[in-house]
Design a protein that fits this description.
alpha/beta; two-stranded antiparallel sheet; 39% helix
């Protein structure tokens, strides 16, 4: 496992992030505690050191289980969790990115995780109502108090993140060092605005659902899988299945698995760390194997062509008019 610094900080994180959304069997497909213990141990043995959870995963069971599993070795891991999603649907202030929910959510997560600080604290999703300056200032206060070391933001428009980091720069507050977005061969939307913005600000990107909800593993191409899955075969479109078939073809040529090809494609983007969310040790071992996969340029192009993705306006228009704008300098 290789390491990189988290954004423009000195915090060192591994090239694959372990997602703990699968930790616990509450509310759907997940893993029991002993399987999660083995998953965490094997991930650590491979050199992985960053685990990502959230206050709402498994109704809070994910944080509680992770706190139990990290007992006696917490400081060897970079612990990341998120707030914003409601703690109490009946409470008008039970959710959101405002200061009150941040404070109460943070205290809840610290207690569940059995720690006195969070290494990376994420805003889970833009709530569209809280002024971003309130959020970034409240996060800075948590950093000053020593309860949070670094902050990140997930599932938020690029212009909001950019405004937050500009305010932080002007006012001497802690900026967002990380961005978390969905990113895979099936969902390349982040390439339009979010990834360029993250690169400009020196932010690390952690990519959730790098296997497209499991579609890119190829398990849906032969019909409905036998094991429990998050997606129904009937909800997956022909375009996504076509991309998955091309991933399978490339995997066959390289002698690796489709999941390893899909993860290798995501991690080849500079500054992007895939989040792997295994439910079994076998899935984890397969995912970890992506670090040994190198995609030749021609195969990467073949994968990307299958997606039919376009940056759209204004990126495509700007590229098309370079000669007109710059003349010989183009």
């Amino acid at each position: 496992m290789k390491y990189t610094t988290f954004g423009r900080t000195g915090l060192r994180v591994s090239e694959l992030v372990l997602g703990a959304m699968t930790f616990g069997e509450q509310g759907g497909v997940g893993a029991p505690v002993e399987e999660c213990r083995r998953i965490l141990d094997i991930y650590a043995e491979a050199g992985g050191n960053i685990v990502d959870t959230a206050i709402n995963y498994r109704g809070g069971a994910s944080e509680e289980m992770l706190g139990e599993l990290l007992a006696g070795r917490r400081d060897r891991f970079v612990v990341a969790t998120k707030y914003t999603v409601t703690r109490d649907p009946a409470d008008p202030n039970g959710g959101g990115s405002h200061r009150k929910n941040l404070r109460l959510s943070l205290e809840t997560s610290l207690r569940r995780l059995r720690t006195d600080h969070i290494d990376v604290y994420w805003v889970h999703i833009w709530d569209q109502r809280t002024p971003i300056d309130e959020t970034i200032r409240a996060l800075d206060d948590a950093v000053t108090a020593g309860k949070v070391l670094h902050v990140g933001v997930s599932d938020t428009p690029a212009w909001v993140v950019s405004r937050a980091n500009t305010l932080a720069e002007w006012r001497g507050w802690t900026p967002f060092a990380g961005l978390q977005v969905p990113y895979s061969l099936i969902n390349r939307d982040a390439e339009r605005e979010l990834l360029p913005m993250a690169e400009a600000y020196g932010m690390t990107v952690t990519a959730w659902s790098p296997l497209g909800g499991g579609v890119l593993s190829g398990k849906y191409n032969a019909g409905a899988p036998q094991e429990r899955t998050r997606l129904s075969r009937d909800t997956i479109g022909d375009r996504d299945l076509t991309v998955a078939r091309v991933v399978q073809e490339v995997a066959g040529e390289l002698g690796v698995t489709p999941a390893q090809v899909a993860l290798a494609w995501t991690r080849q983007r500079s500054g992007v760390l895939p989040i792997i969310g295994a439910r079994t040790v076998e899935q984890l071992r397969d995912n970890l194997g992506c670090t040994a996969v190198t995609l030749p340029p021609e195969l990467a192009l073949r994968l990307e062509t299958a997606t039919g993705f376009s940056l759209g306006f204004p990126a495509d228009f700007i590229a098309e008019t370079r000669q007109w704008v710059l003349g010989a300098a183009a």
